[in-house]
Hints:
The complex is a heterodimer of chains A (117) and B (247).
Chain A: H1 3-33, H2 40-80, H3 84-93, H4 98-109
Chain B: H1 2-14, H2 17-20, H3 33-99, H4 103-173, H5 178-243
Amino acid sequence: MSRAEQGFSHVILLVAVVLLAVATSGYVVYLHQHDKVAPANMASTTTSSKSSTMLSIPTNTSNTASGVTTALNSLANSLNTSEASANVQANASDQSSDANVGTAATNLGGAYDAGNY
Amino acid sequence: MLVASVLLTGVANLMPLSSVSALADAKGVSTGPFCTNLQTKATSQDNRLTTLETELSAAQTKRSSNLQTNWSGYATKLSGLQSQWKTDRDTEYTKLSSLATTSAEKTAVSTFETTVNVAISTRESANASARTAYQSAMTAAAQTEATSINAAESTLQAAVSGAVSTAEASCQAGTTSVSTIQSTFTTTLTSARQTFQTSVASARAAYQSSVKSLQSTEQSAISTNDATFQSALSSATSALKSAFGQS
C-alpha cells in the first residue's frame, strides 16, 4: 500500500471510531432519558428523593397529631382549673369572724346575773 | 313609836341574820341589803348590758364587714385567675391554629375555640349567679340571726326590768319578806337568762346551719356548672380531633 493509501485508511478508521463513540453516547443519553438504565449516582439520588418523600408525610402527620394532642391536653389542664377550689377557700374565710358574734351574744346573757344582786 | 322600835330591834337581835332582812321598817318598807341596793345594782347591770350590747353590735358589724371584704377580695382574685386562664387558653388556641393546614382544619379550630369560649362564659356566668345567691342568702341569714338575738335581748331586758320593778314595789310595800322578794327576783332573772341563752343558741345554730347549707348549695352549683362545661368541652374536643383525623 502506498503511503497515500495508508493515510486514507487511517482517516477512515478515525472517522469510524468517532462515529461509534458518538453513537454510543447518544444511546446512553437516550436510555437515561427514558429511565431504562440509571447510572449509579442517579439511582442513589432517586432513592434518596423517594425515601425522603415517603418519610415526610407520616412525619408531618405524626407531628400534627402530637401537637394537637399536646395543645388539647394543655388546654384541658388550664380549663380544669375551675373555680371550685378557689371558692372553697373563700367560703372558709366567710366563717372567720362569726365566732366573735357567738362570744358577744353569750356574754350578753351574763349581763344579768342574779348572783350579783 | 320609840318603844315599838326598841321592841323590834330587840326581837331582831334574837332572830337569824337572814330573817332580819325580811323585816319591814317602821314605815312598812322592807329593809336589807337586797332592797337597799336593788336600784343601784340594777343600774350597774343596765350599764354592763349596754357595754355588752355595744360589743355584740360591733361583732355583728365586723362579721358583715368581713364578709363584704372577703367577697370583694375573692372577686378581685377570681378576676385575675380568669384573666390568666384566658391567656393560657389563647396560647393553646394559637398552637392549634398553627397546626391547622387545611381549610377544614382551620374551620374546626375556629369552631372549637368559639364553642369552648361560649362554654366558659356560660360556666362563669352560672358560677357568678351561684355566688350572688350565696352572698345574698348569707347576708339575709346574718340579719335574721341578729334580729333573733336582738329580740331575745329585748325580751331579757324587759323581763329583768319587770323583775326589778316588781322587787322594788315589794320592797316598798313591806308586806313580803325580803328573802321572798329576792327569791322571786332571782327565779325570774334566772328564767329570763335561760330563755335568752336558749334563744341565742337557737339563733346561732340556725345561722350556722344556714351557712353550711348555703355553702354546700353554692359549691354543688359550681360543680354542676363545671360538669356541664366539661361535657361541652369533651364534645368540642372530639369534633376537633376528628377534623384532624384523630379518633
